[in-house]
Design brief:
The protein has 742 residues and is an alpha/beta fold. The chain has 15 helices and 37 strands. The structure holds ligand 9MR. Keywords: Carbohydrate metabolism, Glycosidase, Hydrolase, Polysaccharide degradation, Signal, Xylan degradation.
């Protein structure tokens, strides 16, 4: 645990500003004086800056100024260094306001982060209205950056060089810069800023990029590529304009911080505010969000700035921009501290006194397994709460031998999703079931419409079965397990109490769940979240479930190894898609990794798919069947189109990503083997071939994944379906699953 100090090593600056030269440093054992100290003193002990955005006019308000000097060690000009203010005419710069802020900061030993050299908002009219050629605009930008950064050379610690260059789907935002200069403007901006002040620490800054999402993936991907090219980028800022009503996931934020830290980047929380709906109290939820962010900032040494977008609710931008919202900051309109302040202060106090016990919730995507453990989230009571759970689809029909995929028509007959959470020592779950015919009259219990749940702990395993409309009938389970169906048989809520435990947090269990369907005679389907041969009842072919929570770590060695996907050995090079389908296994594409709280697909006519792969010598031959009501292939960023991506990694080689937009061949990439993709005219079937560097041998496995992306509105991908759960980062060579050659 990184930033946290041991009690005996605590140094507390009791008097004066921690940054002044004549500060008095007192070394003591327990540092009780830490309690109630201003934020900047505490944060300084863990190498964290506490910042605020402001404008020069705010300094006229004595309370503002007093609070700023007392609590904060860094400032960001909220507006006054933006293009329209510092560069109001083509040949005129105006640094008057910016200079006042910098002078103020220097007098008060505060660091300054310049904000923002390149943005698509708050640009002067002369710039917006000009009809610039590429070269002209390049010259303007170069002159702007070099003049502004040059003016402040040696005085500013940091610069936000490029602000908000990506749209919410992870494409390049169509800004005035992008439209004329293309994506190169980002790289150029950093290079020019670095030339003008080689000591300034340069940041990319954006919003909705704190966790793991299409947008933060795009930022990561692009910044990584630029760093590999030697572009001087030193950090990534995430703005964090949040709402009190929406929880944030510290595991996802942690994961994002860690991947940026792996690039040797520093991370800034740059524009924190947590707005509250006027009709709600919200202060406690707000304090929770602030608290989570401060915990992350205190935990990760790479996070070195915690900046709020303003100080007091009196001047916040929120009410003017978000109708019906306000009170977003840590100080109210009268500069009184709010619960958020106390929470942040308490966490910092713990951090400097050695009482900080925090590790972010585990991000399962980090764990190298070829099928991720299912994520069970912690509840605050025994009542199942869908908003706090992760729903997964019933993806594979294990009753159907080699073809485990489900067509939309088959899903009309049976479909479902499930989630498991926990509270203390109870698993608390829910199954949502869609079935056109409910049948429970077969004499053999297992032949009826039912749900089976399988749990394995160490050597013990239990099967719990519930026929639709009835309670669980657990087989040999010593504890208490109950289940209850809604009257229409569409919702099943269950609880399994594991009495040997006080609390399940941090446990990893073997797990499976099955939804059986009989429409009048025999079962025709038994759907599981994973592939397999329907032997769960023998204690085999389990997946894993992990009881996630703060300080919890998933088992380092998987407690169960679910079956891998299979590629059949083809008798000869296939000449058609059907040739592959006839010989190999067919699996569904069921996990929408774009929706991290519900990976199931609501409407299978919207998008549905299956895939099959076989091999012959050193070639993989694959098929994707696709049902989609709307085909979009017009996006400039090809991954935003309807497409299929195939991820292949053989042996120690690097992972290769192949992409075929519907109707088109694989995109050309620097892969040494041959590869091609062919769609039928309707775009419903893809037939592809990929040459491997060596022939596949029976029993050999390759790291693998396959994804079907679906864009319906010409702007946002709505689905990206995979055969396994995950967080949509296979393109980084992560979360690959396994394909075994038969
Ligand atoms: O807080 C700023 C507000 O006063 C301006 O009117 C607005 C103009 O778009 O910009 C606000 O600050 C933005 C920041 O520069 C970049 N991230 C989003 C912030 C809130 O819009």
């Amino acid at each position: 645990m990184k930033k946290v100090l041991l009690p005996t090593l605590v140094t507390v600056a009791l008097f004066g500003c921690a940054n002044t030269q004549d500060e008095k440093v007192v070394v003591q054992e327990t540092a009780p004086e830490s309690a109630g100290m201003p934020l900047k003193y505490l944060a300084n002990q863990v190498n964290l800056g506490i910042g605020a955005a402001l404008e020069t006019r705010h300094l006229q308000d004595p309370q503002f100024k007093e609070t700023l000097i007392r609590e904060f060690s860094q400032i960001t000009p909220e507006n006054e260094m933006k293009f329209m203010y510092v560069h109001p005419e083509k040949d005129r710069f105006d640094f008057s306001k910016g200079d006042q802020l910098v002078d103020f900061a220097m007098e008060n030993n505060m660091e300054v982060k310049g904000h923002a050299l390149v943005w698509h908002i708050q640009n002067p009219k002369w710039l917006e209205d000009g009809n610039w050629s590429k070269q002209e605009l390049k010259d303007i930008l170069e002159n702007h950056i070099k003049t502004v950064v040059g003016h402040y050379k040696g005085k500013l610690a940091y610069w936000d060089v490029v602000n908000e260059a990506f749209d919410d789907n992870g494409g390049f935002r169509e800004t005035l810069w992008y439209k004329t200069l293309g994506e190169e403007y980002i790289e150029l901006a950093f290079r020019w800023a670095h030339e003008a002040d080689p000591d300034a620490i340069l940041f990319y800054n954006d919003y909705s990029t704190e966790g793991m999402s299409s947008k933060s993936n795009a930022v990561y991907r692009h910044i990584k590529a630029l760093i590999e090219k030697g572009v001087p980028i030193h950090g990534v800022g995430t703005q964090l304009h949040l709402t009190a009503e929406n929880p944030i996931s510290d595991s996802a934020i942690a994961r994002n911080i860690e991947r940026l830290a792996d690039l040797d980047l520093s991370v800034h929380f740059t524009e924190i505010d947590v707005r509250i709906r006027n009709s709600e109290d919200g202060l406690d939820n707000q304090a929770k969000r602030y608290g989570k962010l401060m915990k992350l900032a205190a935990f990760y040494p790479e996070v070195d700035l915690f900046t709020t977008w303003g100080i007091s609710d009196k001047y916040s931008w929120i009410p003017g921009w978000f109708d019906g919202y306000g009170r977003a900051l840590m100080f109210d309109e009268n500069y009184q501290t709010k619960p958020a302040y106390k929470t942040v202060q308490g966490i910092l106090t713990d951090a400097v006194t050695g009482n900080f016990s925090y590790e972010p919730v585990t991000d399962l995507s980090k764990v190298q397994r070829y099928v991720q453990a299912f994520n069970a989230k912690e509840l605050t009571s025994t009542k199942f709460d869908a908003s706090k759970a992760v729903f997964y689809p019933f993806a594979f029909n294990q009753l159907n031998g080699k073809n485990q995929a489900l067509t939309p028509e088959q899903r009309n007959s049976i479909d479902g999703k499930w989630a498991v959470s926990y509270y203390k020592n109870k698993l608390i779950g829910q199954v949502i079931r869609k079935d056109n015919v409910t049948y429970i009259d077969n004499a053999q219990a297992h032949e009826n419409d039912n749900i089976e749940l399988f749990i394995r702990i160490g050597e013990q395993f239990w099967q719990f079965r519930s026929l639709v409309g009835q309670d669980f009938a657990p087989l040999g389970f010593p504890g208490k397990a109950t289940g209850e169906w809604s009257a229409d048989g569409s919702v099943f809520n269950f609880t399994v109490e594991l009495s040997e435990y006080d609390d399940l947090v941090g446990e990893t269990f073997g797990f499976n769940i099955a939804l059986a369907d009989n429409d009048g005679t025999n079962r025709t389907a038994q759907l599981y979240p994973l592939t397999g041969s329907n032997t769960g009842w023998q204690g085999e072919e389990f997946g894993e479930i992990f009881m996630n929570g703060q300080n919890a770590v998933v088992a380092s060695i998987p407690v169960s190894t679910p079956p891998a996907f299979r590629a059949a050995k083809l008798s000869s090079a296939p000449t058609s898609a059907q040739d592959v389908l006839d010989q190999s296994y067919e699996y569904s594409l069921s996990y929408n990794q774009l929706n991290q709280s519900d990976m199931s697909v609501a409407d299978h006519q919207d998008i549905s798919g299956s895939w099959a792969v076989g091999y012959h010598e050193n070639w993989l031959y694959g098929v994707v069947n696709r049902v989609d009501d709307t085909t979009v292939t017009s996006m400039a960023q090809t991954y935003q189109n309807d497409n299929v991506e195939v991820f292949v990694q053989q042996g120690e080689k690097a992972m290769t990503q192949f992409r075929s937009v519907v109707g088109k061949d694989f995109e050309k990439i620097g892969y040494t083997g041959q590869y091609n993709a062919q769609w039928n005219d309707e775009g419903t079937q893809l037939f592809f071939a990929i040459e491997l560097s060596a022939a596949l041998k029976n029993g050999e496995s390759i790291a693998w994944n396959i994804a079907l992306a679906d864009n319906d509105d010409g702007t946002t991908r709505k689905h990206q379906l995979y055969p396994v759960p995950g967080s949509n980062i296979s393109y980084l060579g992560e979360e690959l699953t396994k394909l075994i050659a038969e």
